Amino acid sequence: MTTGRKKQNVILCGFMGTGKSSVGRRLAELTGYGFLDMDAVIESEERMSIPDIFATRGEPAFRALESGLVDRICRMVRQVVATGGGTVANPENLAKLKRCGTVVALTADIETIFARVGSGEGRPMLKQGDTEERIRTLLQKRAEAYAQADLTIDTSQRTIEEVARRIMTLLQGD
Ligand code: S3P
What we know:
Rossmann fold; globular; alpha/beta; single chain; 174 residues
């Protein structure tokens, strides 16, 4: 990608169901950057699914793996990174990622997120209680963190292709 960008990576953050992985994969194709999906890397390195990591080792163990991976990402260049929905809720992770990349927040309204995540299957953070209520609560808790991104794009009414191309356009001016 030939842009005026001074930072070395593109970091996609945002709530579950906002399209980080799908958009990230397409954005990597468009930019010629590598693609790194944090959840997929953790699952492959631990040889265990995210729900199994939560169930057998607990959330703090997963968060430690996530933060360790953030440190490694910060030594990389020319990567499009799809973070997990909770990665930037940790202020240290957010600060580090902002130093090593342009952080782009993908957002969506609650109805869209609910429709995309369905029953919350495979997403341990949505397991407790009513899924829609849980989304609302977690979104409120994390809104401030997502709002600190360098760029924000609402994905509710947009296709993956549209979001990826919109990010490309916005990055030209970054
Ligand atoms: C999480 C989101 C998930 C995954 C884990 C925790 C969260 O990623 O990292 O289940 O805390 O919001 P996605 O946003 O890709 O679903």
